[in-house]
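Tokens for chain A. Residues wanted.
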């Protein structure tokens, strides 16, 4: 799911064919992407949020607010149990 740094959209590709599967909108300077097989996690540097996208449905949920402590997230990693990002 490569994303240009200032683009509000990201695309997902089929790993075996390279074909475009889906285009997702609504990102703000997406900086990094990680997947744990259940969710694709997108660190949105521009608005201090992280987007969790259900890989089965393509439905996303934006995590934001002071309780998460995001400060321009630029990296993200997930192992299926814990999702990590620098705060």
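Reply:
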């Amino acid at each position: 799911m490569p994303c240009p740094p200032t683009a509000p959209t990201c695309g997902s590709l089929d790993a075996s064919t390279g074909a475009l599967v889906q285009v997702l909108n609504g990102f703000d300077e997406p900086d990094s992407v990680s997947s744990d097989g259940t969710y694709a996690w997108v660190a949105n540097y521009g608005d201090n949020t992280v987007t969790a996208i259900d890989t089965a449905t393509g439905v996303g949920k934006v995590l934001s607010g002071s309780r998460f402590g995001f400060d321009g997230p630029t990296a993200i990693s997930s192992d299926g149990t814990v999702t990590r990002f620098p705060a």
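The chain has a mean pLDDT of 81. The CA atoms of residues 35 and 41 lie 6 Å apart.
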